[in-house]
Amino acid sequence: MNKVIINLLFCIVLIGCSAKDDYPGVEYAPNMYHSVPYEPLSQVKDEEIGSWLDSNPNDGHGEFYNSNPYNPYGMTMLEPVPNTVRRGTSLPYRIPKDSLEVAALVNSPIEDSDEVLKEAKILYERFCIHCHGEKGMGDGLVGKVYLGVTAYNSRAVKDKSEGHIFHVITHGKGRMWGHGSQISIEDRWKIVKYVQTLQKQ
Ligand code: HEC
User: Fold this and answer.
1) Angle at the Cα of 39 (from 48 to 64), degrees rounded to 5?
2) What is the model's pLDDT at position 125?
3) Per-residue pLDDT for 118 more than 80?
4) Could you identify the atom of ligand 1 that is nearest to the CA of residue 150?
5) Which residue's CA is minimally distant from atom 2 of ligand 1?
6) Cα 143 → chain centroid
7) Across residues 114-134, what is the average pLDDT?
8) Which of 45, 88, 104, 113 could bridge 164 with an S-S bond, Cβ 3.0-4.6 Å?
9) Does ligand 1 come within 6 angstroms of the Cβ of 53?
């Protein structure tokens, strides 16, 4: 009797060795491999999965067949609706880093006012003054060492638009680093207003 059991076990082990190509062989504990709930990133199309242990072999598919019947291609997650905007990008400002000319056409959504300029000055002193200097001449304490900080009233910069400056603050330009991750969109537009006053000196 012992011999029969050992032989039988041996046969079972051999069956398990038949795995090749896409066929994984007999799975001894299929529920260790296959999720019963829908897996967001899986796309189960093989209706035979788990049929070896199928509780109801007549329903046309195996116990572990959990393909989503409602979505195309049995996908669990649907593709985003066309033109969906990725979260986390700065709406409504989504102009790519290398599109300074396009950015220059954008107007500030913020109205001019003394209040805004007062706040903007404080922000400028916090984020820009050390390079660009009090009057935007490029002579801040760091600017003197960093070198190459363009003066705002220089020929190259004095006529630059609000959108241009916003883009430079956001993504940087040349040797200036971007500040998009440090300054909120609204505060960036405020700083733009202040820089515009310095350009006109
Ligand atoms: C670490 C020093 C540094 C800081 C901080 C800095 N800048 Fe600059 N900025 C530069 C340098 C250097 C340039 C010249 C970039 C180039 O053309 O290579 C520049 C250029 C500019 C220009 C001219 C862009 C052009 O079109 O040529 C503007 C406008 C400007 N910065 C605004 C700002 C504002 C606003 C802030 C604060 C939010 C700021 N910068 C913070 C170093 C700095």
Assistant:
1) 25
2) 97
3) yes
4) 14
5) 131
6) 33
7) 97
8) 104
9) no
